[in-house]
Amino acid sequence: MKKIVVLGPESTGKSELCQHLARHYETEWVPEYARFYLDRLAEEYQQHDLKSIAEGQLAWEDEKAEYANKYLICDTNLIVIKVWSDHKYENTESWIQAQLDNRKYDFYLLNNIDIPWIPDPQREHPKLRKHFFDVFKSYLEKNDQPYAIVSGIEGDRKKCAVDAIENYFSGTKNAGIDPA
User: pTM for this one?
Assistant: First the structure.
């Protein structure tokens, strides 16, 4: 089973794309645990909450992996928690970094910021989408992670993602190149 992570800045269609890919490949997808966690939090999250979110994300991932068929589609991973922690608190807890260093994923889809921002109570930085896109891209490149940029609206975005997966796993491997 291959693990595919969909990541990117806020409001770039990650969850919708994950659901589409899971249907397309008839497999499981791992929702973003942070949404579940933050919906149940009575106050604003603190840095210590990030470890709980990371633990929940990994637990959901491990559970869904047992039922996945060929691919496991992950709506985010600990890279997002690291990026948020570094941005908001200027550091990442060592446990989170260790988990990030030890968990392996096969391919990343980095969602572009070419779709409109949709307000949501959990979204914090509408004006920093380009910044976070660049941070995610830089992280993937610095850590030699295979990825493709997913662009386009609606059906084009979904096709771009499927084409990137098919190209990568068929050996075409245009990692780091926007296939659109």
Answer: 0.90
